[in-house]
Design brief:
CATH superfamily: NAD(P)-binding Rossmann-like Domain
Strand order of the largest sheet: 3-2-1-4-5-8-11
Order of helices and strands: EHEHHEHEHHEEEHEEHEHEEHHHH
Helix content: 25-40%
Bound molecules: nicotinamide-adenine-dinucleotide, sulfoquinovose-uridine-C1,5'-diphosphate
CATH class: Alpha Beta
Number of domains: 1
CATH topology: Rossmann fold
Number of strands: 12
Structural class: alpha/beta
Radius of gyration: 20 Å
Strand content: 15-25%
Largest sheet: 7 strands, parallel
């Protein structure tokens, strides 16, 4: 396969590019390095030092013997993206290239508008260009489990559900309610994908993925191949943050009651699942929805798991609930359906308790670097301010 990876410099994009290349697929990556700049903007940095894209590509060749093409550019620039798709002629395009932080999207009006523009323009560009250039290209678009919110019913894994409204029956788009401007942007992405799938007969996989944790995939065998790892209050996801807090002696920070429940998955399992979905595309002209997570935990359970792992490794770990900066349900029902990946034979390889120990071990050598960005850890971005 020839795969164009949009967002190839990111936490998921780089390890997916390595995995596809090592499996013998041709890979071209595109990124405008927006996440590097936005993390700097809030006074933080990746836990692991990040080589430039050019150095990354060189290191992938030197260590793994693979060729990855990499082009720096912004996919909201439609002529740049048109040229890339036209000249590269991919079988599939992976779309990761969005502003992906909920807190970043909630800082103020400018950050909200940037998030909506960047995410929706990039998705619309991709939809129209694939229609113009070759509608048979498989679009693998990364959405989020957070599109569904935390409803009091089992979350389906299908584009549409039967609903009875005012006594009459119809099919409606699976109900959604985001918890930030970022999550709302992903909801609008999904509406566009489902809508244009019908109008332009596109072949689409829309993945609803839970929060990812982890420092490694099987290709990350040397420091220069590492992917970015964020831990600050804006960009760090909860498991990754808790591991760094444990190392720095900061009490783990469940927000509010800590009963918020999500479907988590390791970086390795995410990359495995994405590769499987690329290698097993949906039927031509299908809009396929995939719920991608492996284990369901509350934030309180995650804190306990990280505390135990840290203590096993000789760290002194405490937990201190802090006022919730977000507006979200802190106790709720959560039972999402998951059948597409199991039907493709997918079995997770990692579990959170074991992986968290590996993460802490991987991060301990970088303690001095983490200390430098310590002030970016405690929550500051408030949904209501
Ligand atoms: P990331 O920020 O590390 O990667 C996204 C990459 O896209 C970045 O390198 C960024 O520079 C690039 N980018 C953003 N806008 C761009 C543009 N206009 N043109 C070109 N490049 C652009 O984020 P990630 O954690 O790797 O997430 C990848 C995707 O997966 C995102 O769409 C995110 O919403 C989704 N997702 C992530 C998680 C998670 O826990 N990390 C969970 C569910 C869904
Ligand atoms: N949380 C804490 N303490 C912390 C950090 C987070 O209690 O120190 C809580 C949050 O309040 C939230 C939950 O943990 O209830 C998850 O927060 P998160 O920061 O790990 O994840 P989130 O903001 O939802 O976003 C991340 C990614 C995003 C992806 C999403 C998947 O940044 O790109 O879409 O996970 S999901 O959560 O399913 O929407």
């Amino acid at each position: 396969m020839k795969v164009l990876v949009l967002g190839a410099d990111g936490y998921l994009g780089w390890p997916l590019s390595l995995r596809l290349a090592i499996k013998g697929h041709e890979v071209m990556g595109i990124d405008n390095l927006a996440t590097r700049r936005a993390v700097e903007e809030i006074g933080s940095n990746s836990a692991f030092p990040l080589p430039s894209p050019q150095e990354r590509v060189k290191e992938a060749k030197r260590i793994l013997g693979v060729n990855i093409d990499f082009s720096i550019g912004d996919i909201t620039n439609k002529e740049f993206l048109r040229e890339a798709i036209k000249s590269y002629k991919p079988d599939a395009v992976v779309h990761f290239a969005e502003q992906r932080s909920a807190p970043y999207s909630m800082k103020d009006l400018d950050h909200a508008v940037y998030t909506v523009r960047n995410n929706l323009e990039s998705t619309l560009n991709l939809i129209y260009l694939v229609k113009d250039i070759d509608p048979s290209i498989h679009i693998l678009k990364m959405g989020t489990m957070g599109e569904y919110g935390t409803p009091n019913f089992d979350i389906p894994e299908s584009p549409f559900v039967d609903a009875i409204v005012n006594g009459k029956n119809d099919k409606i788009f699976t109900p959604r309610w985001g918890g930030s401007v970022y999550h709302m942007s992903k909801i609008f992405d999904s509406y566009f994908l489902a809508y244009f799938n019908r109008i332009f007969n596109l072949t689409i996989t829309d993945i609803m993925q839970g929060p990812v944790y982890g420092t490694r995939t099987s290709e990350i065998v040397e420091e220069s191949l590492r992917t970015r790892f964020d831990f600050d209050e804006t960009w760090g996801t909860v498991v990754n943050r808790f591991c760094v807090e444990a190392i720095l002696g900061i009490p783990l920070t469940p927000y509010g009651k800590g009963g918020q429940t999500r479907g988590f998955l390791s970086l390795e399992d995410s990359i495995n699942a994405l590769t499987l979905l690329l290698e097993n595309p949906p039927k031509r002209e299908e809009y396929r929805v995939v719920n991608q997570f492996m284990e369901i935990y509350s934030i309180n359970e995650i804190a306990e798991i990280v505390k135990r792992a840290g203590e096993d490794l000789g760290l002194d770990v405490t937990i201190n609930h802090v006022e919730n900066p977000r507006v979200e349900a802190e106790e709720h029902y959560y039972n999402p359906e998951r059948k597409v990946l199991p039907a493709l034979g997918y079995k997770p390889k990692k579990n959170l308790a074991e992986e968290v120990k590996i993460m802490i071990e991987d991060l301990i050598p970088y303690k001095e670097r983490l200390e430098r960005y310590k002030t970016a850890i405690m929550p500051k971005t408030k949904w209501k301010s």
